[in-house]
Design a protein that fits this description.
The complex is a heterodimer of chains A (about 350) and B (about 250). Chain A is mainly alpha-helical. Chain A is built from 12 helices and 2 strands, in the order H-H-H-H-H-H-H-H-H-E-E-H-H-H. The model of chain A is unreliable at about 330-335 (pLDDT under 50). The chains are: A mainly alpha (about 350), B mainly alpha (about 250).
Chain lengths: ~350, ~250
């Protein structure tokens, strides 16, 4: 479901052998895919690992808010579709952990680091999903945003990640269709259903706009993450494309884009119509700048659901430890207290 | 008399419901594990089996729906708790103990296979064909779950699995409580045949894996759900299953 993190370059690529670095960059410029056994700058390996691990973490944490609604799904077909959807997210996590393992970190270490808060996952999963309509919004808006981002990542340079993106995107397209069908059904339903859907839309529009990360820094196109095709498109251009796609679609469904204020629990306390949300002469839809203070607060672990999501992942890790010990020989000790 | 009552008074429908309700509620409660399984690969496999169980329940509800003029979701969701024919084993709380969840599923899978075989010998070709398709997929669950039983029979897994089996065995035997409307000599004899097959197959795996459990046919006075008298945990699961539907009854979701 989730898009990948913005890769951070922790190591200066200038320390690399200039000849090898030049050949590596020429290969990328020529569209050659980089494979795990190929030479690569250490900064590239570490950056790809962080990106892939963050993406894998986001998939398995992203499974949690929707997973909590499987037992309450209101029809057998919705129950089946939601089970399959959450299962897909876990499967995406599994594939991405495999990609990350090739880059030098064991799955056990990655799961432990996630449980202890050493590594992160996507911000958008730290918001509450209190109604069935929130599940519709996650599948429509968040999966829609993820597809938009991941389609560009499938055009990247690291072979295993690119191939995984192709496969994930195929499945995400089904999730998006399912979400679209859920939103359509709710917005064609009773007055109560429509109200529930608008309220869920109000909760998820802001996190969707922030989904693509903070505003880009000047010159980001020339920095290693984009030069090495780890990241293909800027946050701001993806964000604009998302708004252009979903603002008119929401309006057509009878939903209103609001600028919302939320309380600590992530529930809307005040809202007003976003007057900027109209198209300009080029067809670009306007939107009110998101509250980036909120974004960074959630990233630092202080969002409405950070503690709940991490606690559930940790619970799962600890509860399953004996099964892993029973069948595997790896290091399966419990992580230290967070 | 309503279509629902017609269905609930029909012997074949009651037998079909006992299987369908088991699979429905098992798929439902196992849904709690989707996303938090002990191993990613096992999480995925468990979700696949849940989808199979729910799909198999749906196929039987669709058959009954066609026969009695009812919507499959209405059959699945909107009966009163006393009209569900499932065994309360399927909703017994697992407290997120994988040993309990796995053992519960294993007992039910071993019941579903011979029960579907028996249901598939009805006078209704369409129902028999559905049972044939379901049996082949339930057979895959069986071999998968049997392998897990054997794998967990050694080492740390053994004591946990043994504890889960000892605790669940009395409720597992209630799979053989005769559902309402099937309390006659013919059904009793068929039930005994299924019990024989179930206890033979489960005992073979248990012996292989080094477990020891007493499996005996329940006496008439024991109540396990199939006659409509359900444990509190079934009613709680039924309520949770209907939470969204009850928010706006009659709405389309």
């Amino acid at each position: 479901m989730s898009g990948a993190a913005n890769p951070v370059m922790p190591i200066d690529p200038c320390q690399e052998d200039p000849e090898k670095l030049a050949e590596f960059e020429a290969n990328i410029a020529n569209g050659v895919l980089i494979e795990p056994g190929d030479w690569m700058p250490e900064a590239y390996r570490v950056g790809m690992l962080r990106m892939s691990e963050h993406h894998a973490n986001s998939e398995i944490v992203g499974a949690l808010p929707e997973g909590e609604w499987i037992t309450r799904a209101p029809s057998l077909r919705r129950k089946l579709a939601l089970t399959a959807k959450v299962q897909d997210e876990v499967g995406h996590g599994q594939m991405l952990y495999r990609v990350s393992q090739d880059l030098g970190k064991s799955r056990e270490d990655m799961l432990r680091d996630l449980c202890t808060g050493k590594t992160k996952y996507h911000n958008c999963f730290n918001y509450p999903a209190p109604t069935w309509a929130d599940i519709a919004m996650i599948q429509w808006l968040i999966d829609g945003a993820a597809i938009m981002n991941q389609k560009t990542l499938a055009d990247g340079a690291y072979g295993p990640y690119v191939r995984t993106m192709h496969r994930i995107n195929m499945e995400e397209a089904f999730h998006f269709k399912s979400g679209e069908d859920m939103v359509l059904t709710l917005m064609s339903g009773t007055k109560k259903q429509k109200q529930m859907t608008q309220e869920a839309f109000d909760r998820w529009w802001g996190p969707s706009i922030m989904f693509f990360g903070p505003p880009d820094k000047p010159g980001c196109e020339d920095m290693p993450p984009m030069r090495w095709r780890m990241k293909i498109e800027t946050n701001d251009s993806l964000r604009q494309r998302f708004v252009n796609r979903f603002a008119p679609a929401a309006r057509d469904l009878g939903l209103v884009v609001h600028v919302c204020e939320k309380n600590e629990e992530g529930f809307v306390t005040q809202k007003q119509v976003d007057e900027l949300c109209t198209p300009d002469e080029d067809g670009n839809w306007g939107f009110t700048t998101p509250n980036w203070d909120e974004f960074f607060k959630v990233i630092r672990g202080n969002g409405p659901c950070n503690a709940h999501r991490l606690a559930l992942r940790r619970f799962s890790y600890e509860q399953g430890a004996w099964v892993r010990r029973a069948i595997a020989s790896g290091d399966t000790t419990l992580p230290p207290a967070a | 008399m309503t279509a629902m009552q017609d269905m609930l008074n029909d012997p074949v429908a009651n037998f079909a419901l006992s299987i369908a309700d088991d699979l429905l509620m098992l798929g439902h409660v196992q849904g709690d594990w989707t996303g938090i399984g002990p191993i990613l690969e096992e999480d995925i496999a468990s979700s696949s089996m849940s989808q199979d169980d729910l799909s198999h329940a749906l196929m039987l509800f669709e058959h009954l729906g066609n026969r009695f003029g009812l919507d499959a979701d209405v059959i699945a969701y909107e009966r009163s708790p006393e009209d569900y024919r499932c065994c309360d084993l399927v909703t017994v709380p697992d407290e997120f103990d994988w040993a309990v969840a796995l053992t519960r599923r294993w007992f039910v899978a071993h019941w579903a296979a011979p029960a579907l075989e028996r249901l598939g010998t009805s006078d209704d070709d369409e129902l028999n064909e559905r049972c044939r398709r379901l049996r082949s997929e339930q057979g895959l669950h069986l071999s998968y779950l049997d392998d897990w039983m054997r794998r967990l029979g050694a080492g740390e897994g053994h004591d946990r699995m043994q504890a889960a089996m000892t605790s669940l065995a009395p409720q597992a035997c209630m799979l053989f409580e005769l559902p309402t409307g099937l309390d006659d000599e013919d059904h009793r004899s068929r039930r005994d045949e299924i019990f024989e097959a179930w206890s033979r197959a489960t005992t073979a795996v248990l012996t292989d894996a080094g477990f020891s459990v007493d499996l005996t046919m329940p006496s008439e006075e024991h109540i396990g759900g199939r006659r409509g008298a359900h444990a509190k945990h079934f009613v709680e699961q039924h309520t949770e299953m209907n939470e969204v539907r009850c928010e706006d009854p009659g709405a389309s979701w």
